[in-house]
Design brief:
The complex is a heterodimer of chains A (200) and B (384). Chain A is built from seven helices and seven strands. With 200 residues, chain A is of the alpha/beta class. A seven-stranded mixed beta sheet of chain A has the order 3-2-1-7-6-4-5, with helices on both faces. In chain A, helix 2 packs parallel to helix 5 and helix 6 crosses helix 7. Chain A has one domain: Thiolase/Chalcone synthase (Peroxisomal Thiolase, Chain A, domain 1, 3-Layer(aba) Sandwich), CATH 3.40.47. Chain B has 384 residues and is α/β, with parallel strands linked by helices. Chain B folds into two domains: 217 residues, 3-Layer(aba) Sandwich (Peroxisomal Thiolase, Chain A, domain 1); 151 residues, Peroxisomal Thiolase, Chain A, domain 1 (3-Layer(aba) Sandwich), CATH 3.40.47.10. In chain B, the strands form three sheets. In chain B, strands 5-4-6-8-1-9-16-15-10-11-13 form an eleven-stranded mixed beta sheet, with helices on both faces. A three-stranded mixed beta sheet of chain B has the order 2-3-7, with no helix packed on it. In chain B, helix 3 packs parallel to helix 4 and helix 7 packs across helix 8. Classes of the chains: A alpha/beta (200), B alpha/beta (384). At the A-B interface, helix 3, helix 5, strand 5 and helix 6 of A face helix 4, strand 5, helix 5, helix 6 and strand 9 of B.
Amino acid sequence: MDNGITSYCRITNKAVVVNGEKHTIPRTDSAWLSDIYHAENLSYPKFFKMDNLAKAGFLGAELTLQDVGIDKTEPKKNIAVVCCNRSSSLDDDTAYQQTIQNPADYYPSPAVFVYTLANIVTGEISIRNKIMGESAFYVMEHCNPQKFCSFVRGAFSDKTIDACLCGWTEYNNGNCDVLFLFVTRNELNDLELNIEKLYR
Amino acid sequence: MIYQISHNIISPLGFSSEENFRAVKDGKTKLKLQETAFSLPEPFFGALIDDDLLDAEFARINTQNFRYTKFEKAAIISVSKALQQSDIQPNSPRVQFILSTTKGNVHLLENADGFDSERVYLWKSAQLIANFFGNSNEPIVVSNACISGASAQITAKRMLESNECDYAIVVGADMLSKFVVSGFQSFKALSKELCKPYDKNRVGLNLGEAAATIIYGKTDKSLPENSIVLVSGAMANDANHISGPSRTGAGLYLAIQKAMDGFATPNEIAFVNAHGTATAYNDDMESLALTSARLNERPVNSLKAYFGHTLGAAGVLESIISSLAIIDGTALKTNNLHERGTVAPLNTLTENQSCSEHTFLKVLSGFGGSNAALLFKKFTQHNG
């Protein structure tokens, strides 16, 4: 990459772009995130158990790592996973609330409840890629490249970390807004500018 | 390194750190069967902050006509009380607010109670809390499940050490609601009686409400005697399961290794204040991780049978109680532990005992496979 980022992926409701290249995603009757999953020929059945936020983050991570060539089967202690977004897990919170809203139709579901924690997406990505470095989730009003960069820099203050898989991972009420990046230690200098440029 | 300038705990056991510490040292708890709260079909065992006491306390500091939620009030009172013990100007641009919470105002999804829809966003509460004190820096929200309170302190340390701010106000808070309690009930994770951390007969956790604040500053000037220094902190992921702890404790062990490496050896640790939720799996997992880290003979405690699991507040609250314990020279017992019963034996304390070492370890683990370890040291003229 000429922009000083090993690899990145941008997913919005309109398009999927990986390292500057727009991917063709045929639209079907299923949900957009499922369309992406199928179009990219991914094979990870657990995807269909995930809530939308975890799906969005999972896809962002998968596509970002496509050409990075990390071994998904070997435990890795030297990679961190850092995500941030605006709505936390509000999309799934709203779904869970439906299950308890009406006393006459009360069926709290553990499978829905578990995704009412924003950082579950970092857990899903860590499990998928066997990443044992730190994982962290932050929430802010809008994607602020300076703060985003500060969190990633922070992850590198752990001397055992060589790379960070990081993402603005927003999904709420049908609105998908994802920017994922794979960043190594020597790419930190231009990270804030790059996030700003790639997020636009 | 960074050090604690001041702190506060708002919990059912009291509205100051010292009150809470005394209650814990005396073996008190406000955890009890909640039969009517949140009109749940099933009662639950937990501890709630009294609304009237909280409102009365809030009325003393609130001069505006603006409405705050219970979650925001508890956090604001806690920050306000911590600030009163410092000479920090919270409106300074060099002060950074960091909010640790899992669910914030999630109860508004059931009944908006006249609040606008933005109020359920975590950043909105964080802004309101920071703005209450005239601080206009964008606040940071850490939402990392049960380890949020440790993540927030690690974030504070990084921001202070990279000179992004001069002071960090870390406030952890979570309140209970039908949403939160029903979810834990659906997981069958709750005990119907007082929880029994590390006990052979433990059957699950209790939930509790709290807000807790630590104000951190840089250790670049001479520290007052008995200051508590956050020496190091680290996180690691199990990469194993989103809602179940690792079978081996590998992630927690890795976090502990990273936090202790080059900073402390096992025999320098006065005690480990562990997560100890009193679920079968968590406590066993911790016993394996602590054994791998050669901490199984060091005193180990859990504070969950005093406060319950206070979620986003837990890491902050338990760090404060443990800080007061190390200043007091006391390794606290685990309340309601009668018969030790973890897969690997631990030196879990059943009585308070005195300790002379100056360093303690705080560990937390949670959903998402996250683990954290914080290493704290009491500063004295002799060890500084």
